[in-house]
């Protein structure tokens, strides 16, 4: 028997819904670029489509079926479904529906009257409509949240960042017994050492050092900016509104008030004397969505930049 005839015979065997192993023949033929594999795959897709139609028809019919009828038993339905599956395969093989023919022409190359699938636009040639919709959505968001802001640099170096914020951090951190350098380290993680501070659409510095968002409780100024959030460990970008302050000192004070007054962070405040425990509890309470948030803050706290401002060379308190 010739190779092509043998493959065709195997294809015909694969059409039997009870012979799953023969489908491997179809997979191998497709890998080799055999055009007959496309025809067979299209027919099997058509048979699946027919099966779905028959199943929907049977389910509609079952609503009016007599529950006491012997033809309505589970056993009868089981063999009926098997018959419908094979019927679907036979109908697709005979070309009675014609869906397989359309699929083959669409996926084949250089078929007169059909555009190859490889050249069909992914947006269905609706790019202009999609652009208009995106522009509309952006306009609505801007009108709702105000002009989108940006994250801009304020400090030229990490050393300048620490030196400028440490006096305010010492005053604020004392309220909860936290190492002031730990507070600066957290601000460094949130703002990239002051290189990515949130500014409003008008270019005004929000002085937001800790990424605190402006929820319904906040009555002050706001700045809207794109931020990176983690959901189930996967990062994605979203537009959010953040609190804006007149100074970095106010940002420090509001942060301490924020964690001190929220029952959610009570365990973290209780552990404020141990910086590592404090940030671990803060993360567990949901302060940040980044699963590595506490580790990042501690790494910054133990960096050479922070340590040069520390009266103790041993790193964070509690280590």
Q: Into which percent range does the helicity of residues fall?
A: 40-55%
What is the mean predicted local confidence, pLDDT? 77
Task: Please summarize the sheet with the most strands.
Answer: 2 strands, antiparallel
- In terms of DSSP E residues, the strand content is 5-15%
Q: CATH top level of the largest domain?
A: Mainly Alpha
The rounded distance between the terminal residues' Cα atoms is 78 Å
Describe the fold and architecture:
The protein has two domains: 3-110, no CATH class; 145-307, Lysozyme, CATH 1.10.530.10. The chain is built from 13 helices and four strands. The protein has helices at residues 3-14, 23-31, 35-62, 74-94, 99-107, 127-145, 158-173, 180-191, 248-261, 266-270, 275-284, 293-301, 304-307; strands at residues 150-152, 197-199, 222-231, 234-243. The strands form two sheets. It has a two-stranded antiparallel sheet. A hairpin with a 2-residue loop joins β3 and β4 (234-243).
Key words describing this protein structure:
2 domains, 8% strand, single chain, two-stranded antiparallel ribbon, 4 strands, mainly alpha, disordered C terminus, 319 residues
Question: What does the secondary structure layout of this molecule look like, with pairings?
Answer:
Blueprint: H1 3-14, H2 23-31, H3 35-62, H4 74-94, H5 99-107, H6 127-145, E1 150-152, H7 158-173, H8 180-191, E2 197-199, E3 222-231, E4 234-243, H9 248-261, H10 266-270, H11 275-284, H12 293-301, H13 304-307
Antiparallel strand pairs: 1-2, 3-4
Helix pairs in contact: 1-2, 2-3, 3-4, 3-5, 7-8, 7-9, 8-12, 11-12
